[in-house]
């Protein structure tokens, strides 16, 4: 299945070559790599190799989105992870919103992942429940991106297919049953996804190391909000605490 529309300028996937510690970034539902680009560049400056795929149907046109399932979204993330492993001896995953859902799924299937950091992870969103019974061919008018910082501009869609929301709901249902297979996340709380998401994940994962940081001056797209630098600081600390490879070490590893 192919996208029918070109990628919006600025919404492209990106890859930043660094040392042998890799960081995979996963953007959220209706978002694009642009929403985590500054985070990725800041991590790249720290010496990490950073990869951020663009999820299928995202960053082109909302009509593209209804062609794809959550399996397609996961496959794109897993492919990026496998490619990153080819040049990195350790890989951490950072996911925002549905990117957090994808990160949890990836970690449940790949226990060799050194750790995952979740920014406002989505595992249960009650206000979306009404979309389960709506016609899949219908469309929803989207509100402005949920960012507190006044001058932040996110590339996203003004409309979205109900079918895509139904895929998101089904995906969250599936991942709730797999949380026991996940290790090593650090979770940042948010203002739109109910705080219960964070607490539920913390109570159900099997990690021996669980950390929770609250974001007091950010809304849902926290990577573009007032506390973006703090998120970078916490992410770097998490990676350093759980990595055995010095930052900046460069060598190739065959998988």
Description:
With 255 residues, the chain is α/β, with parallel strands linked by helices. 31% of the residues lie in helices and 15% in strands. The longest helix has 16 residues. The C terminus is likely disordered.
Order of helices and strands: EEHEHHEHEEEHEHEH
Largest pleated sheet: 7 strands, mixed
Number of strands: 9
From the alpha carbons, calculate the radius of gyration and give it in angstroms: 17 Å
Mean pLDDT: 90
List the strand order in the largest sheet. Answer: 1-3-2-4-5-8-9
Oligomer: single chain
Q: How much helicity do the residues have?
A: 25-40%
How many helices? The count is 7
Poorly predicted tracts of residues:
247-255
Strand content: 5-15%
- Give the overall shape: globular
Layout: helices, strands, pairs:
Elements (H helix, E strand, L loop, with lengths): L13 E3 L4 E6 L10 H9 L3 E4 L9 H4 L4 H16 L4 E7 L1 H12 L5 E5 L19 E3 L17 E3 H15 L8 E4 L7 H9 L6 E3 L14 H15 L13
Helix pairs in contact: 1-7, 4-5
What attributes does this structure have?
single chain; 255 residues; alpha/beta; 7-stranded mixed sheet; 7 helices; 9 strands; globular; disordered C terminus
Summary of the model, kept short:
Helix content is 31%, strand content 15%.
